[in-house]
Design brief:
Blueprint (H helix, E strand, L loop, with lengths): L1 E7 L4 E7 L4 E9 L7 E6 L5 E6 L5 H13 L14 E6 L10 E2 L2 H9 L8 H14 L4 E6 L9 H4 L5 H7 L8 H15 L5 E6 L5 E6 L2 E5 L20 H11 L3 H10 L2 H6 L5 H9 L3 H24 L5 E5 H6 L1 H8 L11 H5 L6 E2 L8 E4 L4 H13 L1
Parallel strand pairs: 1-6, 6-8, 9-12, 12-14
Antiparallel strand pairs: 1-2, 2-3, 3-4, 4-5, 7-8, 9-10, 10-11, 13-14
Helix pairs in contact: 1-3, 6-15, 10-11, 11-13
Length: 398
């Protein structure tokens, strides 16, 4: 069985074709700048080793982009299938499922209606996700589509974890609460760590650290708490997002600078975080280069980021009454040896003994970064969100 995984953004579309008989990716790529100037198509055939690298191709809308993807997958030179009949099902990443869904679901008209109803909770993501589903249903009407939610894995949280201390009617009438995101990554990583530990009832803290970053506490395979909130703005400091901030600080900045609601939203989501403090870039690699060059604001941003991650680790160890393992994943979590070391410094009280030498080695795959006698294990785990989507699609359509 072959599953096509789609991650549709407002002007982009990532895709991956997975053979579920062995869970191997056959081909993957991305359509960028859809509907705007100079659209770019990148594609890699992992069977033949061929690729199309940043080719400029007209893509006026998502329908044209998906049609291009399907034609490329069938292409005699670069393709991996002889026809679309070899695609058995399509799995879609959808950011927000609200309270409707605590698991992935096969798409029907009611699912589309529910997704449109909660679109206001993720205005930058859900409309684009829904558009990708609708286009795929139109182009391949006889194929089943499955939606896999970023929020679903976190729906095991108890009310004391997901409720905000706002008037209760804001929850009942407006569904204002913590939902959490990056759920597919947290699910994959926590399950992988549980297997490495040989312990299904493990207490695991997953640190998904990238330009967008979130932390989760997973106990017995269920999320106890997670750092992102009603939107991805909450939690730790990120590439361009503030993370946890006193709401009154935002009101104060709005008043003093004469900003509108949209402008303060943009300021907090796209101009803050590492970019806001460092001032030159939101990329962690640029930040580390700035530190090496002696930039004090780069050092401040780095310290703030690591400090906030460490705070969440301590809080989540308390929430679970202990911790068996801490896992780092995402672009920074998988590649950042220095931030991993800085974050783990001072966690000896948990029984954690960090192997600094092993941490500095560039080893691909999943790697244990704690010493053999460490009470709390530390791992670097390569996340596989597309594989989670493919697995759920296979499970629901096979």
């Amino acid at each position: 069985m072959k599953v096509l995984v789609i991650n549709s953004g407002s002007s982009s579309l990532k895709f991956e074709l997975v053979d579920m008989t062995n869970e191997k990716t056959l081909a993957k790529g991305i359509c960028e700048r859809i509907g705007i100037a100079d659209p770019i198509f990148t594609y890699k055939n992992l069977v033949k080793g061929t690729k199309i690298d940043k080719q400029q191709v007209p893509m006026e809308d998502h329908s044209v982009a998906i049609d291009l993807v399907l034609k490329t997958l069938q292409d005699k030179e670069n393709g991996v299938i002889s026809g679309v009949d070899e695609i058995d099902a399509i799995g879609h990443r959808v950011v927000h499922g609200g309270e409707y869904y605590d698991d992935s679901v096969v798409v029907d008209d009611q699912v589309i209606k529910n997704l449109e109803e909660v679109a206001a909770l993720a205005p930058l993501h859900n409309p684009a996700n829904i558009m990708g589903i609708k286009v795929m249903r139109k182009l391949l009407p006889d194929k089943k589509n499955v939606v896999v939610f970023d929020t679903a894995f976190h729906q095991s949280m108890k009310p004391e974890a997901y409720m905000y201390a706002l008037p209760y009617e804001d929850y009942k009438e407006l569904k204002v609460r913590k939902y959490g995101f990056h759920g597919t990554s947290h699910k994959y990583v926590s399950e992988t760590v549980a297997e490495l530990l040989g312990k299904k009832d493990a207490k695991i803290i997953v640190c998904h650290l990238g330009n967008g970053a979130s932390i989760s506490a997973v106990k017995n395979g269920k999320v106890v708490d997670t750092s992102m909130g009603m939107t991805p703005l909450a939690g730790i400091m990120m590439g361009t997002r503030t993370g946890d901030t006193d709401p009154a600080a935002a009101f104060y900045v709005m008043e003093k600078r004469g900003l509108s609601l949209k402008e303060i939203d943009t300021r907090m989501n796209k101009k803050s975080g590492i970019l806001g403090v460092y001032g030159k870039s939101s990329d962690f690699r640029d930040l580390e280069e700035g530190m090496e060059a002696g930039d004090e604001r780069a050092k401040l941003a780095y310290d703030m980021f690591c400090y906030r991650v460490k705070l969440y680790i301590g809080a989540y160890a308390a929430a679970m009454d202990g911790v068996d393992a801490i896992a780092f994943t995402g672009g920074i979590g998988e590649n950042g040896a220095d931030p991993r070391e800085t974050i783990c410094e001072g966690l000896g009280y948990l029984g954690l003994k960090f192997d600094n030498a092993k941490n500095k080695e560039r080893i691909s795959g999943n790697v244990e970064l704690s010493t053999p006698d460490s009470k709390v294990k530390v791992y670097k785990i390569e996340t596989a969100e597309e594989l989670v989507i493919a697995r759920d699609t296979y499970r629901l359509t096979k």
